[in-house]
């Protein structure tokens, strides 16, 4: 039995389209930035009942909406859980990311992201991209000022490309529950590529993380005279 949920008619609306709201863009914790499908596509999906009737939008209202979605001035922004199921939603989401020229703290958790290599976040100091579909460090955005980076629960299989973060002020890195975590001498390899790193997976840099593999092997040898 199909039951229409109370929020079903709003599932394709952005926050700017909601009536009788007293919230501003800078008050949102996790704004919805993805666009909904066209009326024609909804008709073919047999979801036309989900499209709320809207009044014609004037140029003034379009300009007011653009001012409300002034992403360029965001310093802290949570764009997690966007449920990017269609290509047009991914393209709109990417368009928003390109406008984040001043963002310093950004959360992109659980968005099924695969490649943001074309994105540049020049001021970003803290990036949380947990629970996505990244397979390589080469798919990360350009983050020259990054200090804290979290990539837990992705699908990064190798440490290849991690040296791109070598010339950043990166202090802490989280790679928990990635296949690369099981690579031999995992911590040594990470710290050798990132000499400025102070913490990996929540554990501070230890003396043995700095020792070359050959030296550690000799320490375990016992000489009998």
TrEMBL record:
Swiss-Prot/TrEMBL keywords: Leucine-rich repeat, Repeat
Membrane spanning residue stretches: none
Keyword Cell cycle: no
InterPro entries membership: Leu-rich_rpt, LRR_dom_sf
Descriptive protein name: TILB protein
Species of provenance: Sinosuthora webbiana
């Amino acid at each position: 039995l199909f039951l229409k949920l109370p929020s079903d008619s709003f599932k394709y609306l952005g926050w700017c389209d909601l009536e009788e709201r007293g919230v501003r863009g800078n008050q949102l914790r996790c704004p919805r930035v993805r666009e909904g499908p066209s009326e024609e596509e909804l008709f073919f999906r047999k979801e036309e009942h989900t499209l709320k009737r809207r009044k014609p939008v004037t140029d003034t209202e379009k300009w007011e909406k653009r001012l409300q979605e002034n992403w360029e001035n965001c310093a802290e922004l949570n764009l997690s859980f966007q449920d990017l199921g269609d290509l047009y939603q991914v393209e709109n989401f990417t368009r928003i990311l390109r406008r984040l020229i001043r963002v310093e703290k950004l959360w992109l958790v659980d968005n099924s992201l695969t490649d943001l290599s074309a994105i540049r976040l020049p001021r970003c100091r803290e990036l949380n991209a947990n629970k996505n579909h990244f397979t390589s460090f080469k798919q990360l955005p350009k983050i020259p000022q990054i200090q804290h980076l979290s990539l837990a629960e992705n699908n990064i299989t190798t440490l290849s490309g991690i040296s791109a973060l070598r010339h950043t002020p990166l202090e802490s890195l989280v790679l928990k529950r990635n296949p690369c975590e099981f690579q031999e001498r995992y911590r040594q390899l990470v710290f050798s590529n990132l000499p400025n790193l102070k913490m990996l997976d929540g554990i501070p840099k230890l003396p043995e993380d700095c020792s070359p593999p050959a030296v550690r092997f000799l320490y375990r040898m016992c000489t009998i005279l």
